[in-house]
Specification:
- This protein is an alpha/beta fold.
- It has seven helices and six strands; from the N terminus they run αβαβββαβαβααα.
- The strands form two sheets. Strands 1-2-6-5 form a four-stranded parallel sheet, sandwiched between helices. Strands 3-4 form a two-stranded antiparallel ribbon.
- It is globular and about 50 Å long.
- The model has no long low-confidence stretch (mean pLDDT 93).
- The structure holds thiamine diphosphate and magnesium ion (MG).
Length: 212
């Protein structure tokens, strides 16, 4: 958790070093915010003005712990980034089109003027954190989850698209069937594949040499 933030900063440094116009987009949960490596990453990204967009999916809980029980002086997560001199803004993470517009505007801006940026997407997790966490857990009420479900971003987008006439009900049925097929084929592929051998341990992790 949070271990990839310094990697994102390293990749942004590589983009700068190679004089490419690449931008790194780094996604993580609210649970990563109080971790040490997150703050080291924010500090270096700001200090070296690197082209990395930090995107925090703030769903109000790190596993079963509400944010206000994780951080003293908890208010807005964006303030943590601002404290390191990183420009930051909140977006309604339940609004697909708002997230898209924000991502577009921020990437356009950073391509013109490389710098780190922080986006806090305010969202919610309908399911438990993992298999060991029941659907609503002991840390929140069923009512809270039910209330949040009324804001489901996919349902809301579908409603907007139907209202605006950009898609029709059969279009969604087709997408749902395609997704069902991809998922069941992926499960069958995984279950029918041999277990990876010990020699695969370093695959895509280390490389002996690379000129690319
Ligand atoms: C460095 C580190 N510390 C602690 C953990 C244990 N841990 C696993 S998930 C988690 C919280 C994750 O919170 P968040 O990123 O908000 O994800 P969510 O529960 O919302 O899915 C913690 C503390 C970990 N995986 N790594
Ligand atoms: Mg979370």
């Amino acid at each position: 958790m949070g271990g990839h933030l310094p990697l994102a900063v390293g990749l942004a440094f590589a983009a700068r070093y190679k004089k490419s116009d690449q931008i790194v987009m780094c996604f993580f949960g609210d649970g990563a915010i109080p971790s040490g490596q997150a703050h080291e990453a924010f500090n270096l990204a700001a200090l070296w003005n690197l082209p990395v967009i930090f995107i925090c999916e703030n769903n109000r809980y790190g596993m079963g712990t509400p944010l206000e029980r994780e951080m003293v002086l908890y208010k807005d997560v964006v303030d943590r980034a601002k404290a390191h001199g990183i420009e930051a803004e909140q977006v309604d993470g339940m609004d697909v089109l708002a997230v898209r517009a924000t991502a577009q505007r921020v990437t356009d801006m950073i391509r013109k003027k490389p710098q780190p940026y922080f986006i806090e997407a305010l969202t919610y997790r309908f399911m438990g954190h993992s298999m060991s966490d029941p659907a609503h857990g002991h840390y929140r009420t069923q009512e809270e989850v039910r209330e949040a479900r009324t804001q489901d971003p996919l349902v809301a987008l579908k409603r907007t698209m139907l209202d605006e006439g950009t898609a029709k009900e059969p279009d969604f049925k087709k997408i749902e069937q395609e997704v069902e097929t991809i998922v069941s084929e992926s499960v069958a592929f995984a279950e029918n594949s041999p277990f990876p051998g010990p020699t695969s341990l370093h695959t895509d992790v280390y490389t002996e040499s690379s000129n690319s």
